[in-house]
Amino acid sequence: MIARFLGYLAAAFLAAMMLLTVADVALRSFFKLPIQGLLELVELGLACTIFIALPAVFLRGEHLVVDVVDHFLKPAAVRVLDLLGAIVSLGVLVAIAWQMVPLARAMHEFGDVTSDLSIPKIYYWIPVLFGIAAAALAVAAFIVRWRRGR
């Protein structure tokens, strides 16, 4: 249910980016009126799309998998490889979050804003930090489920 909600939310941001881009092209072509700050809005939408979808990908198990050796191993060994991959993923996600939080905090404290629309840059960091943290929780849930044999 959470994965579905996050997927729909990410899809809404993607649709908004597409509609804004189409509107900008149409307004630019027919009326010579571009949408001011479109690049900043698309950047924000892209951050939201990618990082809100990230936990859903982990919850659904739809991340990229290279299964070169899976065909040569027994199913129990493949399960162990899945666990090792999850542990490495969890470590990487935690390390990323650990490095990003001070950067986001500094950007917020300095009051950084975008150049055209003066959007506070912390708004770009919120979906990124949420997505990384939620993806780490999703991987942790996978590890717990793995231990229970599911």
Structure description:
α1 (2-31) runs antiparallel to α2. The chain is 77% helix and 0% strand. It is built from 4 helices and no strands. The two termini are 18 Å apart. It is elongated, with a radius of gyration of 20 Å. By secondary structure, it is mostly helical.
Terminal CA distance reads: 18 Å
Give the biggest beta sheet.
none
Question: How helical, in percent, are the residues?
Answer: over 70%
Spans of at least 5 consecutive residues whose pLDDT stays below 50 are none
Rg (C-alpha, Å): 20 Å
Fill in the keyword field for this structure.
150 residues, 0% strand
List the helices and strands and how they pair.
Layout: H1 2-31, H2 38-60, H3 75-110, H4 122-147
Tell me briefly what this model is.
Helices cover 77% and strands 0% of the residues. The chain contains 4 helices and no strands.
